[in-house]
Amino acid sequence: MATDLDGTALRTDGTVSPRTAAAFAQVEESGSMLVFVTGRPPRWMGGVAGAVRHRGLAICANGALIYDLHTERIVESHLITVEVLEEVIAQLRANVPDLAFSVEYEAGFAHESDFLATASGGDSLTGRPCAKLLARHPGMGPDELLAMVHGLVGHLVTPTHSSRRGLVEMSAQGVTKATALAALAAEHTIEQAQSVAFGDMPNDLPMLSWAGTSYAVANAHPDVLAAVDHVTATNDDDGVAQVIEKLYR
């Protein structure tokens, strides 16, 4: 059982509802594997880990990091090298005016001053390998920006988006939610056909295409709604929990 978090299993306010927490407990108590597959970095997983009583594994940063919720430790990494990071930023900066960048490391976060208006802005972005590079544009929509980024640097990194703003996320070349989930399934001898996945945004599409059975929540991006096997209720109506309760009745 694999599910995205924001916009899918979590409420719009970012919380795990009691009903959804109980459904997640059902999955693990049945002996099945529960995997959270998210664009979130591990530093944003503390609240989720506590809400689900440290159950399950998390695939973070769109597949770049595997995070054990039981121990709250990163157990596997697939990072963008410094050389690739430098080239991608240079190519995008030269071709897309007004972009601002940030990076997620295994532990920590750095951003340019234009990316977030905080006192910590202006940090170096390319001093070490990173899990995820983010690019934000103040005037472009996410689908338009994603298409542009893919055309410019899609041969160097794997771009996607999970936002309704002009924000694109980039992982190491070939790294997606699907590649991480497939590797985890193989490690635990779980057949692809047995897997069930839930999502709502374009960064979920590789995972939903890979899964044996795929669900979108009703509030999902149009491309996701068109790609899945089934549609459940919205995230605020516990759509993921509704399906789990039927499957594990």
List keywords for this structure.
single chain, 249 residues, alpha/beta, 8-stranded mixed β-sheet, 5-stranded antiparallel β-sheet, 13 strands, 33% helix
Helix-residue proportion: 25-40%
Q: How many helices in DSSP terms?
A: 9
Distance between the termini: 15 Å
How would the global form be characterised?
globular
How much β-strand is present in the residues?
Answer: 15-25%
Major β-sheet annotation: 8 strands, mixed
The quaternary organization reads as single chain
Count of beta strands: 13
| Helix/strand structural class | alpha/beta
Instruction: Give helix and strand order, one letter per element, not per position.
Output: EHHEHEEEHEEEHEEHEHEHEH
Using the CA coordinates, give the radius of gyration: 18 Å
| Average pLDDT taken over every residue | 92
Order of strands side by side in the largest beta sheet? 5-4-3-2-1-11-12-13
* Uncertain residue segments: none
Describe the structure in your own words.
- The chain is globular.
- The chain has 9 helices and 13 strands.
- Helix 8 (222-227) links the parallel strand 12 and strand 13.
- The chain is an alpha/beta fold.
- The strands form 2 sheets. An 8-stranded mixed sheet has the order 5-4-3-2-1-11-12-13. Strands 7-6-8-10-9 form a 5-stranded antiparallel sheet.
Q: Could you give a quick summary of the protein structure above?
A:
The protein is α/β, with parallel strands linked by helices and 249 residues long. The protein is built from nine helices and 13 strands. The longest helix is centred in the middle third of the chain and has 14 residues, at 82-95.
